[in-house]
C-alpha cells in the first residue's frame, strides 16, 4: 500500500510542477489557449509518468481538432527536457521518471454521453411526471 501512496503523491507533485511551468516558463505558441494538466500517473517503480493533457476549445461544447492535438503533443515533447530538469530540481529523486504525454479524453467522452442523453428526451418525461405529481398534490 505504501508504494501506491508514494506514486500518487509523486504524480500530484509532478502535475503541480508541469502546470506551473505551463503558466510561467514554457512559451511555445503551439500551447496557446486553454491547455491544462488533468492528471499524472506514475508507475509503481517510478520509471515512467504519464501526463494527461486537456485542451479546451474556444467554446466549451467544441471538440479539439486532431491537428491541434498533434501540435500540443509536439510542443510538450519538445519541452520534455525542461520539464524533467525542473522536476529533478524541485523533487528529491534518484531517478526522474521518463514523461509520456497523452490526451485526457474524459471531457470529450462526457460531451458525447451528454448528447446521447439529450437525444433520448428523458428530461422532458421527468418534467412531465413532476408536473403531474404537483397537480395531484394540490387536489
TrEMBL record:
**This protein's superkingdom?**
Bacteria
User: What is the protein named?
Assistant: 30S ribosome-binding factor RbfA
Amino acid at each position: 500500500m505504501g508504494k501506491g501512496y508514494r506514486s500518487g503523491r509523486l504524480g500530484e507533485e509532478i502535475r503541480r510542477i508541469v502546470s506551473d511551468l505551463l503558466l510561467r516558463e514554457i512559451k511555445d505558441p503551439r500551447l496557446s489557449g486553454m491547455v491544462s494538466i488533468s492528471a499524472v500517473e506514475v508507475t509503481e517503480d517510478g520509471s515512467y509518468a504519464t501526463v494527461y493533457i486537456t485542451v479546451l476549445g474556444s467554446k466549451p461544447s467544441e471538440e479539439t481538432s486532431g491537428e491541434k492535438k498533434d501540435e500540443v503533443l509536439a510542443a510538450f515533447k519538445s519541452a520534455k527536457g525542461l520539464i524533467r530538469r525542473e522536476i529533478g530540481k524541485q523533487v528529491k529523486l534518484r531517478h526522474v521518471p521518463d514523461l509520456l504525454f497523452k490526451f485526457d479524453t474524459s471531457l470529450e467522452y462526457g460531451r458525447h454521453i451528454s448528447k446521447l442523453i439529450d437525444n433520448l428526451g428523458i428530461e422532458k418525461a421527468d418534467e412531465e411526471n413532476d408536473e403531474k405529481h404537483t397537480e395531484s398534490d394540490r387536489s
